Amino acid sequence: MEMTTALWSFALVVGLLTLTPGLDTALILRTSALGRRRQAWGVVLGIQTGTLLWGALTSAGVTALLTASQLGYEILRWAGAAYLVWMGVGMLRARAHPGDGAEDGAADEQDEQEERADAGGLAAGWRRGLLTNLLNPKVGVFYVAVLPQFIPAGAPHFAAGVALTAVHVVEGLVWSTVLVGFARALRGWLRRPAARRAMDRVTGLVVVGFGVKLAVSD
């Protein structure tokens, strides 16, 4: 298999994976729809940083330890499950601010308040996205199982692996741009406290569900 063929084939596989709704999609939509633009892009960059790290570690042979060490996998699995449940419960307990939901006369003031609240949110979003990705051992197992199959024989293993991972990162960034744009279009509706509470509850349930699923999975 030539490198060009490998890149296109891998792009198709991870492209389908990227388009499949999951935890990453829920986090990006929720953060962006609530008007936290900087934090939303932080989440996006954190997720893609985690993807790049998984790809690099797999290419270096480090993540093979996940499949070789049951203890290592279990530690990472339970840490990831606990983090997701903690994050999801925090969303379920969130309350809309008293000033949220102001009508047309106060809309501009609310936008300014949201921008101030979002100041510095890039770093916070990046940490959340990175931890969510790195504490999911299934991402590592996916890369261990799939990535080596697309590295051409005779190609530099690490360089080829990172190049393939970069394809996944680019596709993730493109799809995330679509998600952020879609969510931003819903901001008018999400100015209402009831809508914000519904958004937090739905996303919180999804995140807790992923955490429970990770905890009980084999």
Automatic annotation (TrEMBL):
Superkingdom of source? Bacteria
Topology of the protein relative to the lipid bilayer: Multi-pass membrane protein
Q: Where are the transmembrane segments?
A: 6-29, 41-69, 75-92, 157-186
Keyword list, A-Z:
Cell membrane, Membrane, Transmembrane, Transmembrane helix
Cite the InterPro entries for this sequence: LeuE-type
Subcellular location per the Swiss-Prot or TrEMBL entry: Cell membrane
Q: What is its main location?
A: membrane
The protein in question is named LysE family translocator
